Amino acid sequence: MTRSIFRRLAERADQLYEFDREPVEETELKPGRHFAGLFAGEHVAATEFVIGAFFVLHGITFGDLIIGLLVGNLLAVLSWTFVCAPIAVRTRLTLYWYLRRIAGPGLTAVYNVLNAALYCILAGAMIAVAATAVGLGFGLDTPALTDVLPNGVTWIVIALVVGGVITFVAILGFERLSRFAGICAPWIFVVFIAGAIASLPRLGVERDLSNLLEVAQTKIWNGIPSEGQEKFSVWHVLFFAWFANLAMHVGLSDMALFRYAKSWRVGWYSAFGMYTGHFLAWICSGVMVAAVSREMNPGLMAFEAVGLAGAIAVFIAGWTTANPTLYRAGLALQSVTPNWPRWKVTLAAGITTSLLACFPVVFLKLLDYVALYGLVLMPIGAVVLVEHWILPMTGARQGHATWQVSVVWAATLGFCYVLPLHLYFLWLPGWVFAMALYTGLRVWTR
Q: Which of 432, 60, 419, 424 has the alpha carbon at shortest distance from 240?
């Protein structure tokens, strides 16, 4: 009975994803500059205001920060280039349709719903970041680092209003959103740079920058964590920079992007996002949070640095990040609501997201959430990698592996749960475990 229901849902969903299930045609392939622009735009966003600031609050030293970001971002670029892009270029399929061939429609539907839920949480965090900018006009006190629940009615009202506006725009369609984000991204990056430069005098940096390194080492990344925050080492920064987009590269979600590439070498263009957003923008937000006495308030950080333009940039960064995320959540949910029009699904996702944004924990615990998000989806990427590269060398039959994928997914998460490692370090041994287990199961059952 359950199998029959999943099959009917999948057949209806087929109609919604008719284009996406087909390999991309040669005439639709995009040049490298297209991917450079996409990565640069997507990774200079609202999350950067939070992540870079949290590195300061977690007491990272300046030297550990630079080494960790340089190496970690390089590993992320290599993951896109040698793990994700080659599979995408060879298949020209999205992860959704490739996984469907392997695991069947039922498990793929579960994966899609889980993806949608995780997207809603991430979009909620970005709405909360935008709310910190709007709250400046109402004299709102941003929730404290230890807050889980809303700190007042004003925060709830602002979060719901911002969420409502973002949901309405998301319903209008993704194409207009992506164009708007593409226009705003360069300006937002300029605000990051200008904000950091404008904050330096507040930290005591001389006009000739002669004491810049000293200030960086003693007043910004001085190795002293804020109260209640865990002390970070170079390894925390390195692994975080590597897995910040784990679901996209090792988890293979960006197959949807790279299937339009002419060559797997386009994966190198991910560096435009990593070293502008996940290097420079993280450093800039660290400078800005230090200049406001380490108060985790993205809106205040940018406003104190460059005035109204900074607050507007935070709001738009949250908007342009939450909108496509919310839109994708709505599309993912269509697999289990095939009779609903897209606007109704997006509205349901938007209501859920707006309610989540009322709880400050969704952005105050953003680093841990990003780690969990990638960890939960990572086993599926390991399964697809084995299916594509390793199984052909073993002679095992490919595809039709619903129970094997289910076992690997559950066992990998269980394995990671019992490992006595920090959350940031779990995914790598988990990824190796998932590949080894899936390979063994497929060879054993061939």
A: 424
Q: Tell me the per-residue pLDDT of 140-173, one tens digit each, with 9 for 90 and over.
A: 677 776 777 887 788 888 889 888 887 877 776 5
DSSP secondary structure letter of residue 30: B
Return the exposure string of 324-350: e unless at least 16 CB atoms fall within 10 Å of the residue's CB, then b.
Answer: bbbbbbbbbbbbbbbeeebeebbbbbb
- Count the Cβ atoms, other than its own, within 10 Å of residue 209: 10
Indicate the burial class of 149 (C-beta count within 10 angstroms; 0-12, 13-18, 19 or more).
Answer: exposed
Instruction: For residue 413, give the amino acid letter.
Output: L
One-character DSSP codes across 79-130: HIIIIIHHHHHHH---HHHHHHHHHHHHHHHHHHHHHHHHHHHHHHHHHHHH
3-state secondary structure of 361: helix
3-state class (DSSP) for residue 261 = strand
Q: How many CB atoms lie within 10 A of CB 200?
A: 20
DSSP state, 338? Answer: T
Q: How far apart are CA 111 and CA 102, in angstroms?
A: 13
Identify the burial level of 244 via C-beta atoms within 10 angstroms of its C-beta, where 0-12 means exposed, 13-18 middle and 19 or more buried. buried
Q: Which residues pair with 261 in a beta bridge?
A: 30
Residue with tokens 């002390």: 231
The Cα 222–Cα 416 span in angstroms is: 32
What is the per-residue pLDDT across 260-313, written as a single tens digit (0 to 9) for each? 888 999 999 999 889 988 999 999 999 999 999 898 888 888 888 888 888 888
**How far is Cα of residue 380 from the mean position of the Cα atoms in its chain?**
17
Q: Could you tell me the pTM of the whole model?
A: 0.85
Q: How many residues does the chain have?
A: 446
Distance of alpha carbon 166 from its chain centroid, rounded? 18
DSSP string, 197-216: HHHTGGGT--TT-TTHHHHI
